[in-house]
């Protein structure tokens, strides 16, 4: 197995913590919010507010589920349009109350089902990206597993984008890439090497700003210790500086 595909396999493995456990380890007094105020709630997208030390923050995270029932309900971590619209609603709320935003990303991509497409999956992602690009508050995005296509990018328009050492970030899966490029999904390992989807490759290309070791059950505490000073540093910037820096960051690509 190639090194790149080993990373893919590690990114797809079940984590030793659930998404909710990760959130609860990062912040205290987490209050979950539901619904997009238009269609329904999406269990694949967890969102709410909590305290990062003395700082109130908004947390938005994709969730793959922990049981067969919840995995089916979340489409194995693939949000539907109302999930992305919920995320956009919570981001706007964060801006209104001047709360920094932390996103936690672990998704193979947006759900491609017929109902999702009929209800504007692409538009929901595009609207979320536009909103995030203009938000005056700090945004830190962390890829903690799979980061697939626009479904992941929708939550990764941060002032800083981090990855764990057991995560991947790509335009689509290696199997999908191989199927399109070579008409042979069995060449997924080769595709993974070509795609440069590993944390090391993406850090070298400045797509991500930091690689964070996933220490398993201790990961939430370790991540929290890194987020506290980073959020404080971003909050010290003026809004103009923050938006100009964010714009310049993504214009590089």
From TrEMBL:
GO terms for molecular function: acetyl-CoA carboxylase activity; ATP binding; carboxyl- or carbamoyltransferase activity. GO terms for biological process: fatty acid biosynthetic process; malonyl-CoA biosynthetic process. Residues 1-233 form the CoA carboxyltransferase C-terminal domain. PROSITE patterns: COA_CT_CTER (PS50989). Its EC number is 2.1.3.15. It catalyses: N(6)-carboxybiotinyl-L-lysyl-[protein] + acetyl-CoA = N(6)-biotinyl-L-lysyl-[protein] + malonyl-CoA. Keywords: ATP-binding, Fatty acid biosynthesis, Fatty acid metabolism, Lipid biosynthesis, Lipid metabolism, Nucleotide-binding, Transferase. It is an enzyme of class 2 (transferase). One of its GO terms (cellular component) is acetyl-CoA carboxylase complex. Pathway: Lipid metabolism; malonyl-CoA biosynthesis; malonyl-CoA from acetyl-CoA: step 1/1. PANTHER family: ACETYL-COENZYME A CARBOXYLASE CARBOXYL TRANSFERASE SUBUNIT ALPHA, ACETYL-COENZYME A CARBOXYLASE CARBOXYL TRANSFERASE SUBUNIT ALPHA, CHLOROPLASTIC. This is acetyl-CoA carboxytransferase. It comes from Lacticaseibacillus saniviri JCM 17471 = DSM 24301.
């Amino acid at each position: 197995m190639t090194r790149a595909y080993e990373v893919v396999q590690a990114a797809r493995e079940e984590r030793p913590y659930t998404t909710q456990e990760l959130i609860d380890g990062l912040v205290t007094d987490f209050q979950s919010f539901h619904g997009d105020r238009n269609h329904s709630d999406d269990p694949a997208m967890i969102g709410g507010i909590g305290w990062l030390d003395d700082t109130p923050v908004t947390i938005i995270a994709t969730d793959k589920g922990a049981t067969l029932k919840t995995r089916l309900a979340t489409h194995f971590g693939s949000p539907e349009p109302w999930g992305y619209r919920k995320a956009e609603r919570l981001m706007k709320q964060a801006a209104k109350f001047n709360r920094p935003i932390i996103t936690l990303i672990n998704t193979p991509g947006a759900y491609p089902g017929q109902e999702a497409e009929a209800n504007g999956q692409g538009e929901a992602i595009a609207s979320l990206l536009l909103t995030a690009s203009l938000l005056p508050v700090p945004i830190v995005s962390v890829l903690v597993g799979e980061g697939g296509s626009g479904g992941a990018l929708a939550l990764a328009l941060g002032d800083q984008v981090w990855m764990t050492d057991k995560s991947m970030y790509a335009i689509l899966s290696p199997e999908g890439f191989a199927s399109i490029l070579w008409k042979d999904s069995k060449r997924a390992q080769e595709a993974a090497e070509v795609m440069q989807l590993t944390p090391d490759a993406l850090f070298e290309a400045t797509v991500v700003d930091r690689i964070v070791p996933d220490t398993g059950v201790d990961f939430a505490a370790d991540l929290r210790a890194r987020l506290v000073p980073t959020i404080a540093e971003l909050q010290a910037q003026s809004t103009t500086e923050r938006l100009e820096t964010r714009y310049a960051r993504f214009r590089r690509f």
